[in-house]
Structure formats: C-alpha cells, structure tokens
Design goal:
two-stranded antiparallel sheet; 363 residues; seven-stranded mixed beta sheet; alpha/beta; homodimer; 13 helices; 11 strands
C-alpha cells in the first residue's frame, strides 16, 4: 500500500494506492474522522459489482450507507442531476453527519464532487475511482464539474476530496476500450513530465492492456505522483503550471464535441489531440522527428486511433475556437519539446494548426 | 466616498460606499479590469428603477450589458433558477469576457453570487446592494446560496465578489418595512461589536427610518466595517469568529421557516431572535437587566415586532433543532454579555431556551 500526499496546506489529503485494498476502506475513513453517514454516488452497474460489498464493509466499521444511483453515461453530468441529488440529500440529512463517496469513473467523480462542493457550502467527500482514467487523473485534484448543453464542464468548482482511495484491482471491471482510454492519459504524463514512465509504457503496453498487477501498480502510482505534484503547485490553474495537464486536450475536447461524445471517448480523443499537438511542435521545430514518432507509435501500440475518420475538419476548427483554453481569442496549446517536457504556447500561426488538424482528420 | 478593504489575501476586495455614487460605477469597474461584458442579474422592479440607468452608464464606459431578470421573491433563490441562469449565460458566452453584477437585495445577491461561483468554476462578480440589509450585511463576505424545499441556503458556496458598490441613496427604492428589516441587522452589529453604533441607533432611529443622508452614511459605513473585519478573520466560518454574526439568527431562522417566509421578513425575525437570545443571556446572568432592556427598546423603536403572534411554539422548537447552527445536536446560541460584546454558547439548558421562546411567542 502506497501513500501520496496532495499538498495543499489545510486542504492536503492522501491518495492511498494498493492492489486489492478495496475492503480496507472503512478503517481508512474512520482514521480521518470524516463523519458517520456515507452517501455513495454511483451507477447501477458499479452498485452491483462493487457497491454492495463497499456498503457491507462500511457498515461493519460503524458507518451508515445510502446509495444515490445515477445513469451510467456523460448524460448524468447535468445540472438537472445535481439538483436531484442535492434535493435527495437535503431530505435525507436530518441530524446526520453525512459525507459523500464517489464510486466510479470520471463522470461519477465530477458529479459527486460538485454536489459535495455546493451542498451546505461544501461537505466532505472521497473519491474511489474505478476506471484507469479516473485513478490516474480525474479523481485527483478537485476539479469538479457538470455539463451544459452548450459545452462540457461549464458548471463546476475547485473542491478537493478528503481522500482518494485507489485500488488498481478494480480495473478488472473495465472493458478493453476503457483501459485503452486510460492509457492515453498515462502516455500524456510520460510526455509532459516523465521520460522513464514513457519508456516503461513503450515496453509494457501489452502488460498494461492485460491488467498485469505489477505493471498497473507502477503506472498508477507514477501517474498519481505527477498529477498530485502539479495540483499542489497550481491548484486552481492560475499559475500556468496545471495547464501542462491539458496536453492533447485542446484538440481532444473539440473531437469529443464534434463526435457527440460517442464517436470518441475521452482517451481516444486525447490520443488524437496528442498526435496533433506533437505535429504542431514538429512543424515549429520545437521537437525532433524521432520523439514525435515515438509519441505516435506508443499511441498506436496502446490500440488508440491515430487518425479521425468521418470528422468534419471545419466543424472541428470552429469548436476549437469556443474552447475555454482559447483565452482571449488566442490558441493555447501544450506542445512537447522532448519526451518528458512540454511548453505552453499561444502564438501558433493558424496555418500550422490547420495543417496538423488536416493531418489527423484526413482519409 | 469611502473605501473599506475586505482583507482576504489574493481575494481581497474593496467596498466602496458613497451617497449618489451610482452613476460612477463604470469607471470603478474599469479600474479593477473585471472584463468587458456585464450580465446584470436583477428583478423587474429594479431593472426599471435602476437597471436601465446602470446599463447606460456601463455602455458609456465601454462595457456591453445583458440583463437576466429573476422573480422578485425568495422563490427565485432556487436550484431551478440557477439552472436557468447558467444555461442562459452559457449560450450567451461566446468569445466574451463576461462578469456578473448582482443588482438587488439579499435574494438577488445570494443567487447571482452562487451563479458566479459555479459558472466555469468561478467568474468575477460584483455586488450592487439596493436594500439596507444587503448593503450592511449580505452583499459583504461571499456567502452565496440558494434554497432547497427542505431548508434555506442549503446549496451554495463561499465565493467573494471583486467589489461591493454601496450607494445609500438607493435605499429610497425601499418601503418602510424593508428599512426596518435592515435596522435589525444594524442593531445586531451594535450589540455584537460596537456600543457607539448601538448608542447612535438609539438616538437616531427616527432619522434612519427617514433615510437621512448623514445618518445613513454613518450607519452603513460602520456596519460594513464590522462585517468586513469579521469576514477577514474567519472567511469560511471555521474559526468561530464569523459565528457572532448569527446573533438573533438561531431563533430568527426558525421563525422565518415557521412563518413560511411571509409572516416575518428576515429583519423582523432576527429582531425577535435577538430578544430571545438576550433573555436567555439574562436568565443565565450573563448580561445585566438594563442592557437587556436597551436591546428590547431599540428593537421596538425601530418599529420591529417584539413578540411573535400566532406562532406555534412547538413547531418553532422542532424547526430550531434542524438548524445548521445546531452542531452535533447542541444548541448553539450567540449571547450578548454587554452592549458591544457577545459569547457563543452551546451548553444552554433546554428549559432556559424554552422559557425564552415562550416569552416571545406568548399572546
């Protein structure tokens, strides 16, 4: 069992990582004095697969447990779902010492974290990420949000959990496509901050896809460490440090939008975005050809798409220009300069962006 | 024109107070570089009375202006209204540099502040309070919230404005009952922290009700100063300091609830709550009889009720026990020990509370 502290002064909290530690969550919660009455926000699939066991474990340790089941899709990241949840919780919360457990992937984590942020101006919550992507990325760092019809994550808060409880054994609940999606974010960490991690993924991509215990533990730990360091330095994305986590996300988000959040999942879109950003970097002579190719190869090895089919380039460009990352009309990109290092640039000629986009949507 | 700084490190902001400064709001906003596109959240009455002028002034200074009109009642402090507003703003916000102006009393301020807190994880907003109560209390300090059906202010955030722009001349838009309601909070500041202010209100209660310029300026400034100091010391009500602002509010909130938010407005309920708390304090020999009577007299002089008619005592007691201020089942009261000083107590015998409640609901 390993422990990483996300250092944020009074709001610091531990990420606890360990294979098959799921049953030990009760005592861990007890030790941080989080309350007595747990509300588990999850979806139906995970309630059956993991929730029932979690409930039994918590009750054994003296907690009470109530489930709030939300739909298993991005659709549950809605303001409507938020208001349903806070109303439910309000009715339930009489003389209780409640806290929230987000049991699920990024959708559940973002939604549950936001509910915790605004109910009574903030109550305690913990993250129990069940997807690869959530374990190494979304469950850490307190970015919570839900979507509006006009755009993703437009309503939210920075609100840190009290603990992240990460069991890589839970990834056995995932299908292959979800594992691949998580690999995209793992590759991202390698490119932005950790050449050793990048090499490890190059060598062990098959073992990761096979959910090999040792390999998974290493990757989850290493990624969590990078994420927690970045968050500690720039919690609210005001110092330009947290921005590096957006490598691949500028084009990635636009691809998700144009694909209606169905054609490409988050990791697939980010994979394509990373390729686009690497090509922009290559075009500007910021990175050598070989590094650029290594990035593309490892994305291909992970079984992620390397070109976007049936995506309208012009729609993609127009969505790009609505992205939050386009500050003051400037096109902000995170660009790799070598494996393990990126820069943030806002002065990229439109022609260069256009060329990179064209290269990934062709065919 | 006077200036008070609410000191909160990076989140510090000025309260600008001046009679008939309303027209100077444009340049003041320009000076803090708040954005370009203002969204004024207000009600229909205030849009006609003040909004149209405000719009013209802002446009002259180079801002664009869009109105969001909300119903003129506590009912607009709903999650549904929040949902409507964020969706509207999301659709409007394309390549804009938006910020929010809360033009109104406590309801508009709480709602607009919460919308600003959660849209894009927080955008800039300023408070332009138009009621006595909002000018001296709710517009300062960043407590934002909306109601749930089961209770008031259950969904919200601590989120500070970038500026509070206070023009006591705007109080001319109020009816007498609203002015009296504000006086209750002014009296509260006197009791909790400022015996000079208390004496001033004793002597000048008629001039306050008559909206005398000099008298109003003094009271608004003095109250704002106390509020800002308390907020600076304990922004998120975690250090037990901000708690003193709840003098009169424990019983006050319960009275509002039992009266369905119609029988008593906030100030009237707080006035009755202050009397109840003073009597509890008297019963416990924490305050002398004369001070206790002075509190009751000044509340009566302000034209506020001193006893609650047709209120069911037992319903009141049961609502009291649901209040957020009842931490861990303990009855937390703010009790005056002399004019200008209060203590927070959680160990009050139920019989003493019962006696004080009985004394205000009798007849």
């Amino acid at each position: 069992m390993k422990r990483i502290i996300v250092k944020l002064g009074q709001r610091s909290y531990p990420i606890i990582i360990g294979y098959k530690i799921f049953s030990r969550i009760g005592p861990a919660l007890k030790s941080i004095r989080i309350g007595r009455d747990a509300i588990i926000i999850t979806n139906n699939f995970l309630k059956r697969k993991l929730g029932v066991t979690l409930k039994r474990n918590l009750e054994k340790t003296g907690f009470t447990v109530k489930f709030e089941v939300v739909p298993d899709s991005e659709k549950s990241k809605s303001t409507l779902e938020v208001f349903k949840l806070v109303n439910d919780i309000g009715k339930y919360d009489i003389k209780r010492r409640i806290f929230i457990i987000a049991l699920g992937g990024g959708v559940v984590g973002d939604l549950a974290g936001f509910v915790a942020a605004i109910y009574k101006r903030g109550i305690s919550y913990i993250q129990v990420p069940t997807t690869f992507l959530a374990q190494i990325d979304s469950a850490i760092g307190g970015k919570t949000a839900v979507d509006l019809s006009v755009g993703k994550n437009l309503v939210g808060a920075f609100y840190q959990p009290r603990m992240v409880f990460t069991d890589p054994a839970l990834l056995a609940t995932l299908d292959r496509r979800q594992v691949r999606s998580g690999m995209a974010e793992a590759i991202k960490y390698g490119v932005i901050a950790d050449s050793k991690l990048f090499e490890f993924i190059e060598k062990n991509h098959k073992a990761i896809l096979g959910l090999n215990r040792k390999v998974l533990e290493f990757v989850v730990y290493r990624c969590s460490l990078i994420k927690s360091k970045v968050v500690s330095l720039d919690e609210k994305e005001q110092r330009g440090i947290r921005t590096i986590l957006n490598y691949g996300h500028t084009v990635g988000h636009a691809l998700e939008t144009v694909g209606g959040y169905e054609k490409y999942n988050h990791g697939e879109a980010v994979g394509l975005g990373m390729i686009a950003a690497a090509r922009i970097s290559g075009e500007l002579n910021l990175i050598d050809k070989k590094s650029c190719q290594r990035i593309e190869h490892v994305i291909a090895d992970a079984g992620l798409p390397t070109s976007a089919k049936k995506i309208n380039k012009f729609r993609l460009m127009s969505v790009l220009y609505r992205d939050k990352k386009f500050v003051k009309g400037l096109t902000r990109f995170v660009l790799p300069v070598k494996i393990g290092k990126v820069v943030v640039r806002e002065d990229i000629p439109l022609s260069v962006i256009d060329k990179a986009i064209s290269s990934i949507v062709k065919k």
